[in-house]
Design goal:
This protein is mainly α and about 100 residues long. It has three helices and no strands.
């Protein structure tokens, strides 16, 4: 859809994947701080463990989404301009052993 609507530059300007990674890092840091700041509480420890697992799974999903989008860009060659898509003409070379025969 981004290719069809020519919105790749607008999408890139959002820095969406970087902001998602930053959000996950902040949440993980908050969980780490809550772990270290208090006494060991079994329920809180279980909650923190589940939260860390959830954040890790979400991070992996967003990484896969990023890789999928990147591979789609490569597949559809959106990084190249229209003029660069055409392959340059190969120089004409004579076959070896074909010299002097006409």
């Amino acid at each position: 859809i981004l290719k069809l609507l020519d919105q790749y530059s607008a999408f890139d300007s959002l820095h969406w994947f970087q902001s998602v990674q930053h959000k996950f890092s902040r949440e993980e840091q908050a969980v780490q701080e809550s772990k270290s700041g208090r006494e060991v509480d079994v329920k809180l420890d279980q909650t923190n463990t589940l939260t860390m697992k959830r954040l890790d799974e979400y991070r992996q999903e967003f990484e896969l989404l990023y890789y999928s989008l990147s591979s789609a860009r490569i597949f559809f060659r959106t990084d190249l301009e229209e003029g660069q898509l055409q392959a340059p003409a190969a120089p004409a070379t004579a076959e070896p052993g074909a010299e002097g025969t006409a």
